[in-house]
Amino acid sequence: MATQMERPMANESPALDVLDRGASAERGATATCGSPAAKNRATGRKSAPPDLLAFVRAQSVSAAARELGLTRQTIYRLREGYWPRNSDKIMTAWRACQCELADRASRWVVRRVYLGGVVLHGGRSWTADGLAAREGQSLAVARAEGFSLLAQTLELPPERLLLREVA
Length: 167
Known about the structure:
Blueprint: H1 50-58, H2 61-68, H3 72-79, H4 88-106, E1 109-114, E2 118-121, E3 124-127, E4 138-144, E5 148-153, E6 160-165
Antiparallel strand pairs: 1-2, 1-4, 2-3, 3-6, 4-5, 5-6
Helix pairs in contact: 2-3
């Protein structure tokens, strides 16, 4: 009996009890696979991204768990090299954290210079040399590397100052 593959345009279908084994005397041996394909198998990365691992290992477990919104146990396991089959939750948290960190580093805000050359930002007091003379003026402030702030005057020519936290 001919199989459905040998007569693809025929309207009649083969009997349900006739199975094509893929290897028969008239067809010869063909490549077949007896294992079924998994329908809901996990897809995605095979291991953690290197920048995520560096982020997790550079901070305390509690700080990393707080930033990513994951449990401390998950952070411990990530540090040890564990990567789950279904990593959607971890990757979603990591992408959100990356966006938040990028926003922190690049957003400029306007701040006022108070008495004594003090600028208030993020609930902390910041200062730089020469800011006392700019009391009452406004500055554009953004995050810089190493948890410091970068300030720029709004009048021309603009002047940039590296702010340090007041002790």
